[in-house]
């Protein structure tokens, strides 16, 4: 595996520059409804390694959206497909995978992601004029001017503030930050630290742990010695399970409240940690902060029905029914597809500027809650606003979207629960 530490980014880009030059400029700027075969949407995430669950989460949204688009007649006379682009949660591997995708995918209409390695891979898509509906939380994109980058969920910087707000509202004034040392996990930490301090909290321990070790007894003892009231965390399922089990054992079988980031709100994480510390303890002590989605209403009903029906492509699809990222990835595909119809072209150079046409509020617009409804309205000459499974999106000047966060946990049966909401106003207050 090519590692970024062994090859500078200038060198990586030189290695792939010939391919990128061939890929860039391959799209005309004229409208086009002509397709030689299926229209392809990418799903750029980690599908192998300890963060493989991120890919499963993302592609569940892609498969669900594509199935409904095809049921509604497809796009410009062709079926639509999802194409997995595995970045392995590694910058060098991500650049290689993205470069291969833009060079080889025929009728490449746009992609979900990139995610955790976006600072490395986003320039590949941007320079190749491929529209991205990104799920990266990296703060490097908070004020981006990149034309083809769109983010449908709040950044991790907002998530860090939301974790701090939630802890302080519960009265937890002494915290321990226990995060994996990989880039993806660390993006929430700076704002968690600053927000927690601003709100009157003290971070008594800030620990970066190497993932997937057989034991974390030493690390757990270090945290325990600082006497925290709450543990903040993001790590893969097995890492957090092993660490929290060690902490529980050293603390006489007792735990303290645990507040996780959005990536901890997955069935795999809940099972691993629940098996390690006990499902009753998971229910009692854990919440994770993720972008707020209602999980009900007409748009969600369409999403969830199609999701649950696709057992052939999506193993155990019900695990994604309440998942904020699966919903917003589903919405990302629909937004791109509806913008294509609005522009009368599947090519990103044509439709990319039409994305606000189908997402922004406006006088005289028709609210639509599915791709099929949006397609019919556009065909009838109407202006639309898409309201998705994750809610309505209104992009700002940097193609970002902020919003509320929900504190979600799991009951003893493994069902997801909601403990409360941190509003965008709460986040703004502690970040200002």
Kindly give the count of domains.
2
Structural class: alpha/beta
Major β-sheet profile: 7 strands, mixed
Low-confidence stretches: 1-30
Strand residue content: 15-25%
Q: State the helicity in percent bands.
A: 40-55%
By CATH, the topology of the largest domain is Rossmann fold
Give the name of the CATH superfamily of the largest domain.
Response regulator
What value does the average pLDDT take? 91
CATH architecture of the largest domain: 3-Layer(aba) Sandwich
Radius of gyration: 21 Å
Instruction: Output the number of helix runs.
Output: 17
CATH class membership of the largest domain: Alpha Beta
**Taking strands numbered 1, 2, ... along the chain, how are they ordered across the largest sheet?**
7-6-8-9-10-14-15
Short description:
This protein is of the alpha/beta class and 432 residues long. It has 17 helices and 15 strands. It has two domains: 38-155 and 304-392, Rossmann fold; 157-288 and 411-421, Rossmann fold (3-Layer(aba) Sandwich).
What does this structure look like?
With 432 residues, the protein is α/β, with parallel strands linked by helices. The chain has 2 domains: 207 residues, 3-Layer(aba) Sandwich (Rossmann fold), CATH 3.40.50.2300; 143 residues, 3-Layer(aba) Sandwich (Rossmann fold). It contains 17 helices and 15 strands. Strands 7-6-8-9-10-14-15 form a 7-stranded mixed β-sheet, with helices on both faces. Strands 2-1-3-4-5 form a 5-stranded parallel β-sheet, sandwiched between helices. Helix 3 packs parallel to helix 4 and helix 5 packs across helix 17. The radius of gyration is 21 Å and the shape is globular. The N terminus is likely disordered.
